[in-house]
């Protein structure tokens, strides 16, 4: 898969811009603040429906405008596809594929990309919510149908929390108990699927993560991913995430199922956890167990990377995690490699790591790279260079 053309209208600092891309490496060069990251942010949004820089999509619309448009021509398996999303300041966003209207969430079916940026250091050092979001975005790229499962789980979670708050205010009545049990069933059904899918993804990432880390760092520090699951009694929201050791019962079995202290399925463990927390949930007016309270611990040298890893090790881990994600997608996909996007990465690396990273990414069908200084990027990645100045392509 590759992007052949990107068109932006009223997106960030671009009133209008047209950019052509080629197979292999594409280098986007410009001083800070000129708009190079805005180009790859737009492509990342087409792939994941989120920005790696902001949580509010309205921030991506050019000042003074009501909407911004991202339009990209894609090519894979001999097919040309035109994808488009209109980001509205108010109201729902709108999407099209080949000029036909689709549900916005269906865009992820058509474009697969993996983006690494300096902000991804927060995957290692930040809150559990960022790691959950990383896993869920990768799940959707591998299996787009999970978009609906995740959305349904969030809806059920909100409804259940509303009922728990009502019960806290008025005392749990018989009718509310029956309704709560209905929401419990839906929460367990959807949540167990998410837990199992995440756990299998964590297992699959293990081998390519080790390979990618050694390729980037030049050393083997034993990178590993360990699930921290609320259904086994661990709660990332109540503890210092990444600085705790998972309980002995957590983790995945050889078939990808969740290991727990009680025999049975993930759903059984989920139901048991809900029953044990019933009174506490009512007292607090919120759901205290489920995939929305899980985490994954990043390990280096048998220690949690958060709190123990150096800046360079944390940077290498985050970059290796994204390279491992891209490798996993290329193995699974019938549409070819994902587009690999490296936003302002090379400035943070020494010369040897730059060379190793260049060697690690040159095998991908298409790589998009941004840099403020041309000389920061190894020469083998500069064959097609696009220069950006003040929201315009000045050559390339």
Helix and strand run? EEEHEEEEEHHHHEHHEEHHEHEEE
Q: What is the correct CATH architecture of the largest domain?
A: 3-Layer(aba) Sandwich
Number of domains: 2
Structural class: alpha/beta
Widest β-sheet, arrangement of strands: 2-1-4-5-6-7
CATH superfamily of the largest domain: P-loop containing nucleotide triphosphate hydrolases
Q: What is the average of the pLDDT values?
A: 90
Largest sheet: 6 strands, antiparallel
**What is the CATH domain class of the largest domain?**
Alpha Beta
Q: How many H/I helical runs?
A: 10
Distance between the ends:
22 Å
GO molecular function: ATP binding; single-stranded DNA binding
Binding site for ATP: 30-37
Region (Disordered): 236-264
Protein name: DNA replication and repair protein RecF
